Amino acid sequence: MEPTVAITPEILDRLDDELLQYSFLQIHDMAYADGKIVITPEHETGCQEFHMEPDAAEYLASFVGLPLTYIAEIDDPAVISTLWNDGIRKRGQDIDVLKAVVRGKYISGFTMRSFHPLRPSAVVNACREGIAHCEFERQPYVHGKNVEFVLAGPDLYEDFSTTLPATDIHYFSVGVEFNYTGEDYPTMRAYGHRNACGNSMYSPYGVGGKQFRIFTSEPGQVLAKFTECTRQVVEFIRGTLIPKIRATMEAHIPDTAREIAGITKKYGLPEAVEALVFEAYQAEDLGGTVYHMANSFSRAANNDRCPPLFVQKLQRMAGEITVRYEALEMDKENGSELVLGETIDDNRKPI
Questions:
Q1: Fewest Cβ atoms closer than 10 Å to its Cβ: which of 36, 77, 157, 292?
Q2: Which residue has the higher pLDDT, 247 or 287?
Q3: If we measure between CA atoms, which residue out of 189, 119, 116 comes closest to residue 149?
Q4: Helix 120-128 vs helix 9-19: angle between axes, to the nearest 10 degrees?
Q5: Average pLDDT for 149-153
Q6: How do the domains of the chain map onto residue ranges?
């Protein structure tokens, strides 16, 4: 494992500063003119003009019932303005349920009136209450409007040497990602890292998306939810992920190679990535177990030749094979068949 990063005021201030470029404008009235959105803010008499970024235009068009594909085919600016304004007028006073997410002279998106933006530092501090003495597993970062960080605790590890003939220590952590402007679900992940080879896997952990998506609660209640969810992910790691890893170490598959081939084809991995998985399978002797198979996917993700777009997918597949593993069913005609509790896919599960 790489050294963890202390959670310092300087890092938290940097996270906050990166998102101060966005501000929130409560809308009282709105119109469209000359390719711009003209907003009258609440409690103000003057208007402000903004360009719309693509995400904002898509959101507003959906809100007012205007098909953007139809607008794109019109060359006359006057007609475009008329269509936008007709749609806005049809929403009437409903338009004031929106807040504009503003960056300079551009609207980058819209959110609901009831949304309360949370400083990233406040979210980090709320989550760290769920893991005693935790640190960042790696430097947190901001991409677009999203903040992502991973927290590791000193006692979140397990030695599986009592199950395997060799020392095999795994370290675990909790990943958190949230959108500063409320445009997407916050998500959490349970990460597992195999110390012997640096392979990583993860399993998304969802605990009630609507409670986060609506964002109507006051900030203290939402932050308390982050704390609660972090504790639940830690419990999931200790109560589910670790026992599942141990169980997969003891579950032998008569034809592991066939199972791997079936999974890679079922979930559409290209031939080059499938080859990396088989290469990883042949690189270690883990007894043809479910653990051996899951490790093949996480080891392939760790390969320098793995295309970046497939790294997280392979790590997700390794985690899902482990967590969703139920049993081996025997079929008289086709032999054994690996049974997974849920379908493996790469869709995000909301908190």
A1: 77
A2: 247
A3: 189
A4: 140
A5: 96
A6: 9-18+117-249, 22-103, 251-340
